[in-house]
Every structure is written in C-alpha cells, then in structure tokens.
Amino acid sequence: MSFSDIFKKDFLASFTSENVSVPHIAAVLLITALISVYIFMVYRLVTKKTFYSKNFNISLAALAVITAGIILAVQSSIVISLGMVGALSIVRFRTAVKEPMDLCFLFWSIAVGICCGAHMTEIALVLSVILTVLVIVLDRLPIGRAPMILVADLGSLSQEKEFMDMAAKYCRYYRIKSRNISDGRCNLVLEVRTAGEYEMLQEMEKLEGISSISLVSHDGEVTF
After folding, report:
1. Lowest-confidence region among 53-57, 92-96, 170-174, 215-219
2. Among 58, 69, 116, 181, which is 20 to 30 Å from 198 by CA?
C-alpha cells in the first residue's frame, strides 16, 4: 500500500463517525421540529398583518428540520459532505426577500437546524430565547408615530394658500408630498401629524371649492 493510499484512508477515516441510529435521528428531528414551531409562533406574533405570509412562515419551520437532516447526513462521511456541498451549490433562489425581518428569521431557522443537527441543542434553545426577547422588545419599543396622509381635491391652485393655512393651524407637522393640476383643479397630497383630526376635517370641508378630502393612516416605517 502506497503512502498516498494510507493518507487517503486515514484522512477519510478521521471524518467518519459512528452510524447514527434511527431513534437518535428521530429524536434530533423532533427537537428541531419543536423549536421550529416556536419560531413559527414568534414570526406570526411580531410580523405585521400587511406583510404576513403563511407559506413563508411554514417554510421557516420546514427549513430548520431540513437543515438538521443535512447536518446529520454530512456527519457520517466527508464524501457525503462534499457531495452535499456540490449539490446545494447548483441551487438558485430567485425570490427576493422583501422584509429585512424575514431575512433575520431565515438565518434563525438555519442556525437552529445546524445546532440541533450538530448535537448542540442547548445553543439552539438559548439562541431562540435571546432572539425572542430581543425581537419583541425592540418591536414594541415606542420610537415614533407614523404620519398620516391628507388628500384634498381643490377647485383651483389659488385655493392652496388658504388650505395650507388651515393645515398649519391644526398640524404640528405638515409637508406637501404631491401636487397634481388637471383641468384647472388641484389635487394635493400632504404628510401631516395632528391630534385634532376630526376638527380639522370639519373645518377644511367648509372651504370653498373643495370637492373631496381624505385623511389616511398607514403602517409604514417612521423616518427622521
């Protein structure tokens, strides 16, 4: 036997572990599934209803279990691990992640799968508890109130000054976001912050030439 054969044999043997039994595999995947269900509930709790996707949430739970299975497989042999790397390297995901929080939960799910598959369940549990506290506390932290959107259809551009004076009377903050003129009429879109919403709309409705006025709230991010 040549030195090359001995080196290959010793190198492969050093990366070969004992055969994993079926009960052990089932126990690891079951623990991973329980933690993934926990991730499922946390994601449902902190995600805004507008951006919530049940399919994405289910995929988070499944991803943790799949990752744990992959880690269990690659532990048996370096040959399998190299083949797994080659197989996964050709996979391409073209779905864009719209929310940064979704990316955080993706990494959380993958990390839980890796930790459980590598028999580091304690790390997965502590990581899940710390991330839950961090995400919920920061999500509930009062940073600011999102401004409202005021949409008004004026009879003419000359009425804009009177309308803006009325907005300045009731709003501690106001800013024109859009001004559209068509057939002599002027459509204004303002970003406003006000406490007297009902009184402001009542008085603005009495202005001459206003055909419609709307005040819309939104769940967008607060910018400074």
Report:
1. 92-96
2. 181
